[in-house]
Design a protein that fits this description.
CATH superfamily of the largest domain: 2-enoyl-CoA Hydratase, Chain A, domain 1
Strand content: 5-15%
Number of strands: 9
Structural class: alpha/beta
Number of helices: 12
Order of helices and strands: EEHEHHHEEHEEHHEHEHHHH
Strand order of the largest sheet: 1-2-3-4-6-9
CATH architecture of the largest domain: Alpha-Beta Complex
């Protein structure tokens, strides 16, 4: 049995190669500041990267919100990561919420955000840091930093334009407007929208479809998707050739071929 990490403000489960991380701070609408959720997310990603028995990670929130982002009362009172000098705040961002951004960017397995309710500010960015986003009909997303006279200090401007393209990301960041679930799907912020009671089951079906594939090929494919965003084509093709050579020498590749020819589901061992 794979040992799960100890978390403080979130609950982690693992079943059939699918890990589910559920934020447990509904008392503050799963805010990412003033809680240990950032640390819990970083710990979970590092654990998942180390363990080849995990194929997919679902992130979702317990209660009414996915995540309200920053704690506005702490901003008002200049407490926590919002207190101190300019240099203090800079260091607190770098050592705090930006560690979450870096960890999610370094994730070696697919990430699915099951957006159960409002995802505001850094909560919206957290969803954008995932590969796939399924939304409840109660989801509400907003890049609302500018409404508070600040900017997306967690790197949201970098992530959002990779999801939506420059022009649409600029519109949402510069206006700070809120986007309901139906429009979020039209824009591409959400892949699908389902009724609240179907959210986690739908995310689990999508995760199970991915988890049923050869595990090494899943992780290689995830890495290639990320690397394609920053490599020139000749360098990227060289990397593809190397990864492909590794895949051709796995037992799972031969099992996948046999399963295809025999018209049966593959049974993969991650080797």
């Amino acid at each position: 049995m794979l040992e799960l990490p100890v978390l403080t403000d979130a609950m982690l489960t693992l079943e059939a190669r699918i890990a589910t991380l559920t934020f447990q701070r509904d008392d503050v609408r799963n805010a990412l500041t003033g809680t240990t959720l950032v640390n819990d997310i970083v710990t979970t990603i590092e654990w998942a990267n180390r363990n080849a028995d995990v194929s997919v990670l679902i992130l979702t929130g317990a209660g009414s919100a996915f995540s309200a982002g920053g704690n506005i009362k702490e901003m008002r009172d200049r407490q926590g990561m919002f207190g101190g000098s300019v240099l203090d705040i800079q260091q607190q961002y770098r050592q705090g919420i930006q560690q979450m951004s870096l960890a999610l960017h370094r994730a070696e397995l697919p990430l699915i955000a099951a957006v159960n309710g409002p995802a505001i500010g850094a909560g919206c960015d957290l969803a954008c840091m995932c590969d796939l986003r399924i939304g409840s009909s109660r989801a509400l997303l907003g890049e609302t930093f500018i409404n508070l006279g600040i900017i997306p200090g967690d790197g949201g401007a970098w992530f959002m334009q990779r999801v939506l393209g420059y022009q649409r990301a600029a519109e949402l960041i510069l206006t700070g407007r809120l986007v309901a679930a139906a429009e979020a799907r039209e824009l591409g912020l959400l892949l699908e929208v389902v009724e609240p009671e179907q959210l986690l089951p739908r995310a689990q079906v999508l995760a199970a479809t991915i988890a049923a594939k050869p595990p090494q090929a899943v992780r290689f494919s995830k890495r290639l998707l990320k690397l394609a965003q920053r490599l020139e084509l000749p360098d990227f093709l060289d990397l593809c050739a190397g990864f492909q050579g590794m895949c051709h020498h796995t037992e799972d590749h031969l099992e996948a071929i046999d399963a295809f020819l025999e018209k049966r589901p593959g049974q993969y061992a991650g080797r």
